Amino acid sequence: MRLLPRLATLTLLLIGTGCMNTPPRPAAAQVEDPWLWLEDIHGAKPLEWVEQRNAETRQAFASTPEFERTRTRILEVLDSDAKIPAVTRIGDRYYNFWKDQDHPRGLWRRTTLQQYRKDKPRWETVIDLDALAKAEGRNWVWQGATCLRPANRRCLVALSPGGGDANVVREFDLSDRRFVKGGFELAEAKSDVAWIDKDRIYVATDFGPGTMTKSSYPRIVKEWKRGTPLSAATLVYEGSDDDLAVSASRDLTPGFERDFVTRALDFYTSETFVRGKDGKLVKLDVPADATIDTHREWLLVQLRDAWTLDGTTYPQGALLATKFTDFLANQDKPGKRKFTVLFEPGETTSLSAHSWTRNHLILNILDDVASRLEVLTPRSGEWRREKLGGAPALSTIEAHGIDADTSEAYFLSVSGYLAPTTLYYGVLGSADAAPIKRAPVFFDAKGMDVHQYFATSKDGTRVPYFVVARKDIKADGDTPTLLYGYGGFEVALTPMYSGGVGRSWLERGGAFAVANIRGGGEYGPRWHEAALKANRPRAYEDFAAVAADLVKRGITSRRRLGAEGGSNGGLLMGNMLTQYPELFGAIVCEVPLLDMKRYTHLSAGASWIAEYGDPDKPEEWAFIKTFSPYQNLAPGKDYPPVLFYTATSDDRVGPVQARKMAARMRELGYSNAWFYENTEGGHGAAADNRQSAFMHALAYTFLWQQLASKAAP
Question: Is the pLDDT at 619 greater than 80, yes or no?
Answer without folding.
Answer: yes
